[in-house]
Amino acid sequence: MDPRTPSTATAVIAVDGPSGSGKSSVSRGVARELGLRYLDTGAMYRAITWAVLRDGVPASDPAAVASAACSASLEWSTDPDESWIRVDGVDVSRAIREQSVTSAVSAVAAVPEVRALLVDLQRGAVRSALAVEQGIVVEGRDIGAVVLPDADLKVWLVADPGVRAARRAAEDAAAGRAHVTSSESIAADLARRDAADASRAASPTTQAEDAVVVDATHLGLAEVVAAVVGLARERMGA
């Protein structure tokens, strides 16, 4: 990252944590509050997974997955109020949330070539924001530890597993997703994904040493957003 005067307007904020902890909703809220861009890196991995499945490539074949990933063209929005992502010109914003993608994304994300490709794109999105003197909130699982180790603020967002599962079930139901299942089934799936993401060889899910832990178990969305915004303003001296 280029040297710059610390300011909330140009802050680079990394929000990491396990699946279902509320990273997306919190990150969008923080970006809106501070007037920053927003990047959902999880959606990028899901989009590549969608492309892999579209091409009939087994997620268990790393070489074929890497080839499919390199052939796909991604476009995405960094507007927190207009979130979308496209693969080869096709809007897959809803499709990437289906169960087929959810079941395969950890395997696809574990392929080193996929991670290298997307990390490069993610860092490019940050450079593009800073080039026009605008900050960005980037959320994922290894942002503070790997993708943006020099981020101005790193947040590790956590919540009780049962709460995470209940929130994910509510989100799926509200979105009208056909694969909505019980909180118990979702909790098991979240545990499986957490284990897979934490044990992968390439950039495993890792809490950065200097990340601030925010526990959202007993907090509403507005309260978590306010907490992160407060941390950003304190860190930036605003």
UniProtKB/TrEMBL annotation:
It catalyses: dCMP + ATP = dCDP + ADP; CMP + ATP = CDP + ADP. Residues 15-26 have a biased composition (Low complexity). Pfam families: Cytidylate_kin. SUPFAM superfamilies: P-loop containing nucleoside triphosphate hydrolases. It is an enzyme of class 2 (transferase). InterPro entries: Cytidylate_kin, Cytidylate_kinase_dom, P-loop_NTPase. GO terms for molecular function: kinase activity. Coiled coil: none annotated. Residues 1-26 are annotated as: Disordered. Residues 13-232 form the Cytidylate kinase domain. Residues 1-10 have a biased composition (Polar residues). ATP binds at residues 17-25. It is found in: Cytoplasm. It comes from the Bacteria. Its EC number is 2.7.4.25. Gene3D superfamilies: P-loop containing nucleotide triphosphate hydrolases. Keywords: ATP-binding, Cytoplasm, Kinase, Nucleotide-binding, Transferase. Belongs to the cytidylate kinase family. Type 1 subfamily. PANTHER family: CYTIDYLATE KINASE (PTHR21299:SF2), CYTIDYLATE KINASE/PANTOATE-BETA-ALANINE LIGASE (PTHR21299). This is Cytidylate kinase. It comes from Longivirga aurantiaca. The gene is cmk.
